[in-house]
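Hi team,

As requested, here is the filled-out complex form for the Z5A run. I kept the field names the same as last time so the parser does not choke. Let me know if anything looks off before we queue the next batch.

— J.
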Amino acid sequence: MARGALIIFEGVDRSGKSTQIKRIFNQMVNKGENVHLTRFPERTSEIGQTINGYLKSSNDLSDQAIHLLFSANRWEHAQSILNYMNNGTSVLVDRYAFSGVAFTAAKGLDLEWCKNPDRGLPKPDLVLQLDVDEETAKKRGGFGEERYEKVEFQRQVRKLYSQLREEHSDIWKIIDASASVDELTPALQNHVDETIKSCQNKDIEKLWI
Ligand code: Z5A
Ligand code: MG
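And here is what came back:
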């Protein structure tokens, strides 16, 4: 059986990841395609609820501890992602280990240290990085409500995404996400469709191994 693809949406705050990934998921469901949508942080588990408290600034944790919790939150769901893929269902994920690394390294922690807990997770077949400049992001709804939504910090995160993009140029596409919601969806859908076709018979690899 052809396996499903693992496709990640990444990008700085307010770049439109959640908006676009939901549109693409709905289009694929309407066409009868085998697709599953998830996101990280996945805030419903016990670990997810602790992360949620941290992001809303109601609890404080060391930079190392919260990093490990974000990673543990992915590992809680790694086997289920693999099961979907092996059963022919493609998985769309709103943020993944690249957010984990970029957001913690932006605080000054060592990049390789940041990667360690996520080593061995299912490796994505495609990373779609939605990119908007600071001014555009600031104008969009909701900016500033959670812990990391500060301009200087997001600038640092953007730099780290560039570094990760260079390391993963084989699977990474950067998309100018300043266009309208309607304009962006078809281009993103094309990348998703092409990846699903091209990885059908490839082995599932492990991230950072
Ligand atoms: N984090 C971490 O530190 N470590 C980790 O391992 C992981 C995450 C996985 C919460 O993530 C925080 O966790 C995040 C990283 C950190 N902190 N920050 N920053 P989250 O994914 O839950 O964050 P969020 O609250 O969903 O925000 P977001 O993902 O950054 O936003 P978005 O999904 O990219 O944007 P959106 O919700 O689709 O759109 C934002 C607004 O813009 C909304 O009002 C839209 O209607 C509007 N919008 C969207 N697209 C457009 C276009 N094209 N034009 C105009 N307006 C638009
Ligand atoms: Mg989002």
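Two things worth flagging: The mean pLDDT is 96. The chain has one domain: 6-198.

Thanks,
J.
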